[in-house]
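Much of what follows relies on a compact textual record of a protein's fold. Think of the row as the fold of the chain written in a discrete alphabet. An example makes this concrete, so a full record is given next.


***
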Amino acid sequence: MKHIISITTVCISLLLNACATAPIEDVRSDASIQATFEREKVKIYRIYQKSLRQAPDTETKTLFKITIGKEGNVVESLVIKSTLNNQVTSDINEVIKKMDFGKVREDKNILIYYPITWYPN
């Protein structure tokens, strides 16, 4: 058992060091934004799945207006349009507000419009 803890500690240490030395991009790319959403899609999908209990055959669309800061934090996230109920939309927006898009060298905030469309199963 001591060996397992030791190996785990080494692995965690290596991961932390790798994260600390990750390169900083010059500008925020579409690919990096999409990668962040991909990392968080399980949380968003779980919220959406709960809404399917009420209307399982409904196609839904939501458009978010998101301002991402230089440090990668979400400065502002607004729901522009949505066919989901208000509580579900609000819950998804809270997930988006907590996303970390990573730091960039570019010295300005970026504004994106991010649509999400769900199709019935």
Observations:
- The longest strand covers residues 60-68.
- Residues 1-21 have pLDDT under 50 and may be disordered.
- Residues 30-51 form the longest helix (22 residues).
- The chain has three helices and three strands.
